[in-house]
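<goal> How does this chain fold?
<body> The protein record starts here
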Amino acid sequence: METFTECIKRHSKKLWDGLIERGAAPSFREDRTLRSFSLGEVAEFLGVSGSYLRQLSIDGLGPTPELGTAGRRSYTLRQINDLRAHLARARPKEALKFCPRRRKGEKLQIISVAPDSASTTTSFYLAQGLALQGYKVLAIDLDPKGSLSKMFGYHFPAIAFSGRRPASMYGPLSYDDDDRVSMQTVIQQTHFDGLDLVPGTLELEMLERKITKRILKNEKNLRYEDVSIKMVSALKEVEADYDVVVIHCGRGAFLTAGAYEAATGVLVTVRPRWPEIASMTMSLEYVSHFGSVNCDFCKVLVTRYNPRNVSEQEAVAFLRESLGDDLLTATVWESDAIRQASIKGRSLYELLAGAVGRSAYEQAMETLNSTNAEIMDIISGVWGRPKIYVSQTSRSATEGKANSRSGGNSI
């Protein structure tokens, strides 16, 4: 008789074949492109004036921007990175400002984002924000449901039927010789120049089960490589290619443990509501059980914060009193703009302000950029560099408000 598993596989295959025949099967990856950025946006990324960039363009220095209506200049992200390289050569004393990639002797930063409130969105915006600032970034999705991967346009259900296995961290971490692959083979490009992704797939759930079985069979004599050692070894393979790795942790115990033990930094997110603070506290307790974790930092980020809500104000005050400097100064506000962007399957970095409402867009971007700036300053501190991003972001926000009041714009 046909087993339940065989029945399900038979139905799945028949349904999938039918979807392919009708052209309705989702592809492994959406064909996405990233918009160009205005001269004003590029000036803000680089920390220079729009007039300076305009003059560079007129003088034929650096990449040639696209000219739109009324001569408005815009740059692709790749051109922005080329512009960074040009400015670093032309102004060597400010090379770190324009081209922040890690130098010799500076270790790869591996930031594991704990699986708490808004951790997927936080991982998404952190990885993209770092890429926009000129870092080479690898995002790793350890969620079997691929929540972060979907935000980048990768769809895990298609993998099981596409023959593209393994396509996740299952391959580099696998204990089975037949399934094991190198780290390079599971890395996918995203539509952000300088930002790559290891997708999350259902294979990760299978890996968790296999690890559990091995532990049960070898509980008295665990002499095999554990997942944390494998995670570190896998990242060593591509260490030279990246400045920062952002690991989006899922709910799998062993994979999350491996992410924490590989991490040089841990970021824990929390919504300022008492039940969620209790949940986050348990997450911190969980992290504390991994004695081999040796992070440069462990920070807590308040997300989805409504600063007009008195209870949430009290919760933030409690967190600040309890955690001190380990609570990031920046908070990410509750935002309809972020929510609308998510519904559109994009980040705010990918959209123009008009797509979600200018006022809501600017407010959300201010909180996101402030958060990323604080994290980038922490990374700079670990590398022994001066901290510049928070002050640069604050200055840009102030100038932006002044320009808005005066009705100025950049061309």
